[in-house]
Amino acid sequence: MTLYVNGIGILGAGLAGWAGSRAVLAGESPPCEAAPPEPNASVLPPNERRRSSETVRWALHVAQEAMKQAEVDAHEVASVFASSDGETGVLDRLCTALATPQRTISPTLFHHSVHNAASGYWGIATGSQQSSTVLACYDSSFCAALLEAAAYTHIEERPVLLVAYDLPPPPPLYAARPLRGGFAAALLLTRNSGPHNLTQLDIALSNDLSDEATSMDDSRLEALRSGNQAARSLPLLAAIARQCDTLVRLEYLEDQHLVIRVMPC
Amino acid sequence: MTQGLVDEQTAEDESHLAGDRRLNQAVNDVSYDPQGRRHAVPQNRHVGARRMAPLILSRYTIVSALGKGLDETYRALRSRRSGLRPCDFEDVGIATHIGRVDDVENVLVGGGSASTELEQFDCRNNRLALLGLRQDGFIQAAIKARERYGAHRVAVILGSSTSGILETEHAYCRRDPATGALPSSYLTSHRYTHNMFSSAHFVRTYLGLRGPAMVISTACSSSAKAFATAARFIEAGFCDAAVVGGVDSLCLTILYGFASLELMSSGPCRPCDENRDGLTLGESAGFALLEKSKHVGQRGAVALLGYGESCDGYHMSHPHPKGTGAIRAMQAALLRSGLTSGDIDYIHLHGTATRANDSIEDTAVHSVFGPSTPCSSTKGWTGHTLGAAGVTGAVIAAMCLTRSFIPGTVNTTRIDPSLRSRVLLENREQPVRRVLSNSFGFGGNNCSLIFGTV
Questions:
Q1: Which of B73, B77, B184, B309 gives a 20 to 30 Å CA spacing to B66?
Q2: What is the ipTM of this complex?
Q3: What's the whole-model pTM score?
């Protein structure tokens, strides 16, 4: 199945924005030590941004970057959001409150706890009424989302914004789910070739696991990749950054590989 | 072996699709104004390119407060016995009713030779999922599909809104007073219980399936959207069949959360009633096995004919006041199915019984279907089962088709006179050929499904 990447957003330690990260991902310049970046997510109106969680802001920050690069009207774009653990900061506050005798929780805290909070805020920020699917598949969430986005753009004949994101959970939950660094990535995908195409992707599922899944050569990037499901997108992003014909294999659960041929346009 | 794009699409399929493009231009060319007058609408919507090939629900089942499996559910609907009761969930002190499923506490996840692998999934949500799998021969049907297509060719796509969060709620009550740490037993089980993928992980492990899997979590539209994604995966050739459905179980988060939003009824909910005062929460697990008709087609089989997905783009917990997102979802489902509004015999409403939902859904339904298509809400029977509401509606729709039956609306005494759609209070016995079922969720996430017999 062939699809095209028209826009990319990326946010992680030392990887703030596609333009600034491309050379690092291509292996042309070394990754630098950097504090986790602050998402700006200016697509959100100030009052919504104040209310939104950090997770939402990370997701919307990269979504916005990919959309801007692709120069596409948000009203015409469907979305697929992928997060393994969702709003862990909100869930921590919620479960802390529910462990008190009063069990008093605020309405805002409750509706911010849903797994589709980022998707909902994207809709509010853009006014888009196109379909938005939010999914979870543990460490294969990005892979599952890429399949869903590919199927969507082919069958529904509409561009799709894929957004994968997860942040390290707050302390008590971190021990249950040690996602090591915050990461978010977005791809604007379409089935149509055109002037905005950055890269062509040919994707297929394979049961043949004899070749190893693609990892990152640089140890810092590899630590990021293996520590956060959203960063499992890094081998694909690195292949796009290198701008040469490459085969990338991503693990889809323990059972299949998503094999992606990456070709520059 | 590489499996990707469908490579067996025949020339016959191609000509079928060309015909469908023409069909799309002719469908759904009227809408209704508030006075019930028909108006032509412009044909510039683009909500999907073509009619889908029907997908057979070769097996399906449901467990809710109405009972376990299709027969108990049908008997409760037929005899108008609601499954709602005063809240007796744990020590919750909220004056409300709930749709709790009996015996979930007694289900053993694990047991037998595979016990160690399965036991780690033990939590209320997966117990409810297992109770669902065990009804109506679903496990046997899934195993048969696994044998027919191969384990890698059967997907598991489920919906849930809160997964096994109850385990985390309990763990937070047992934090180490000195360090704040959560109990060590919870730390190792978190992945298999609360993590959002847990239910699909459990179901595919239990059924020995190795195809694509995910949990869709878009609040109350989750398990309806699982049908849409599964349909796409089958059409894209990522799998040949899919176990679809959803599971959501009672927990403190939703009970205290909906109480905080003041959206919960003090008694059993009364959908579409002029005095409705909010929703009643419930729990359910439902599953369907989706397959292409060329493999399992038989006359009279229930099929997914269409799906439509949309967003409101308006507010996190309040639907768009004009119902434009809901309208878009219903129209997209009609286009996908190649049907017109007049082809739908019954609409299974989302019908949560909140003031806003029922009124705005009515506006949307009336705008697409006008004043005469029968519709009703079954939330007075089951309660609102959130992420599992979509599959609950799907299975009830399937029963309407196979048992020539339309449920009315229970607990409701007088239909809100401001509603303009044709809301049924009483049950009906009549042949039913096409049903549309609505599911709308927080975050303004909407999905409509159309089922029919083939």
A1: B309
A2: 0.98
A3: 0.94
